[in-house]
From TrEMBL:
Domain of life: Bacteria
Family: Belongs to the purine-cytosine permease (2.A.39) family.
Keyword Transmembrane helix assigned: yes
Keywords, comma-separated and alphabetical: Membrane, Transmembrane, Transmembrane helix
Official protein name in the record: Cytosine/purines uracil thiamine allantoin permease
Originating organism: Acidisphaera rubrifaciens HS-AP3
Lineage: Bacteria, Pseudomonadati, Pseudomonadota, Alphaproteobacteria, Acetobacterales
Main location: membrane
GO terms assigned for molecular function: nucleobase transmembrane transporter activity
Length: 487
């Protein structure tokens, strides 16, 4: 161990940890600082659920051939499963005030934890780039409506028109403004953003019901799939919807660490996640079904729908809503966890604000404009991410509830030596469970004969990861004679 790793630094209340694992942004939130109520938790989730990618993913289920009712059923199943996973994975954050990148050290070791943290950070930045590009399309459409000359800025640069680059730059600047004052500004922004998006979503739903003259014609659109194809597509849809939030099922402690009680986090997530998500999805399905009646084909991109309506005031109102919704999900679900992950990698060099700005820069290198407009590519990426992070969720749940029995030594989570050190900072049980679970989940993507099981990637990953970790960690405890508290 080098000198930098063995040093300590003080925090509030005299808490100390090794400098390679600790700084003020990673320190446990003291009970007095956990002031988020269930209202804050639910509005944060409202702001995250109401986003362009979730809208397009739900509407994209219909483009893949499912009926409106089948699409709603797929979403309901996915979000109920997610709620249960997030409910249980959020509890240690609320109980101990620690973020994901610290909690994961319990099951992977202080050095091994960097593996899931890097993958989670990569996914968060990827989604930031996707959402950011989606929001920039709304800015492009609004400016093009107000200033027709804007639409002549079509010179291509690295696969995107000049006007697109300017729109991206403007949207990135809005992100920077919101995150520049830390977590509390994010919380306050979500109090406004979540309810606003619901209101405009209701207007879009009213339009859909008006042009269809009621609910009947919208839900009478039959499925284009039958038999096995219908069930496999349904499973792909469920896994894909889970894939949108599988990243957050892992790092939900990043939010729950600020919540004042277990009751607040459960009620807040129940209202903000499955209930709001199902309502929002119903809105997107109704609206997309209406586009089939009006235009003869589904329009699953909300910006393209706004342009197709040829009403400037509708475009402005809808475009601003898309911008607010995208900012809402990006700052809470993508920038915030990615920033914590970067701080965890370099705690002596980065704080939350500087790490947030670094996320904005790195996000550009994902170039989402090169592949964004394709429902199949979105579901392929969603399924892959879900399969890869499923094992991490399973490992975390097994470690906290079965191996640790909900008891953690918080000071030792910030040290290279101690009960969580494993072997040289690596917990073999966590690493092997992740590798085996991830392989089982994703093998269907590369082996044609096993392609069918890829539709269940997240479920396979979480089950295999949990089972392998449980066996290996229990065996280690038995061999070494450790109690649950010392395992």
């Amino acid at each position: 161990m080098d000198h930098a790793e063995s040093g300590t630094m003080a925090a509030d209340g005299g808490f100390a940890g090794d400098t390679g694992l600790f700084n003020a942004d990673l320190a446990p939130v003291p009970p007095a600082g956990r002031d988020w109520s269930w209202v804050n938790m639910s509005t944060v989730w409202m702001g995250m659920v109401h986003n362009v990618v979730a809208y397009e993913a739900a509407a994209g289920l219909m483009q893949l051939g499912l009926s409106a009712l089948q699409s709603l059923a797929a979403v309901a199943v996915a979000y109920f499963v997610l709620f249960v996973a997030m409910w249980f994975n959020a509890r240690p954050g609320t109980a101990y005030g620690i973020p994901f990148c610290v909690l994961i050290r319990s099951s992977f070791g202080p050095r091994g934890a960097q593996l899931p943290v890097v993958i989670r950070g990569f996914c968060a930045i990827f989604w930031f780039a996707v959402q950011g590009y989606a929001g920039s399309l709304a800015i492009d459409a609004i400016i093009g409506t107000l200033i027709p000359a804007w639409n002549t800025l079509t010179m291509p640069i690295l696969g995107m028109a000049l006007k697109g680059w300017v729109a991206v730059a403007l949207f990135w600047a809005l992100h920077a403004w919101i995150v520049s004052h830390g977590v509390h500004r994010i919380r306050n922004f979500e109090l406004i953003a979540g309810p606003l998006v619901i209101l405009v979503g209701l207007l879009a739903t009213a339009w859909g019901l008006t042009v269809a003259h009621g609910v009947g014609p919208l839900f009478d659109q039959p499925s284009r799939l039958t038999g096995t194809d219908a069930w496999l597509t349904f499973c792909v849809g469920v896994t894909g919807m889970i894939g949108i939030w599988s990243t957050f099922a892992v790092n939900i402690p990043d939010l729950s660490r600020f919540v004042r009680s277990e009751r607040d986090q459960v009620i807040g997530q129940l209202i903000g996640l499955p209930l709001t998500a199902i309502v929002f999805t119903a809105m997107s399905v109704v609206t997309t079904s209406a586009t089939i009646l009006v235009f003869g084909h589904p329009i699953w991109d909300p910006v393209q729908l706004l342009l197709a309506l040829h009403e400037p005031w509708v475009l402005l109102l809808g475009g601003v809503t898309i911008i607010v919704a995208t900012l809402s999900v990006n700052v809470a679900a993508n920038i915030m966890p990615a920033a914590y992950d970067l701080v965890n990698l370099m705690p002596r060099r980065l704080g939350f604000n500087s790490a947030s700005m670094l996320v904005l820069v790195i996000g550009l290198f994902f170039a989402p404009w090169l592949w964004f407009h394709n429902a199949n590519s979105i579901f392929a990426v969603l399924g892959g991410i879900g399969g890869l992070l499923g094992p991490v969720t399973g490992i975390m749940l097994t470690d906290y509830y079965l191996i640790r029995r909900q008891r953690l030594s918080v000071p030792e989570l910030y040290r290279y030596e101690g009960r969580y050190a494993g072997r040289g900072g690596w917990n073999p049980a966590g690493v092997w469970a992740f590798l085996i679970g991830g392989t089982c989940a994703l093998i269907g993507a590369v082996v044609p004969a096993l392609h069918t099981i890829y539709a269940f990637a997240w479920f396979i990953g979480i089950a295999v990861g949990a089972a392998v970790y449980g066996v290996l960690a229990t065996r280690r405890r038995a061999v070494e004679g450790l109690s649950p508290a010392r395992a």
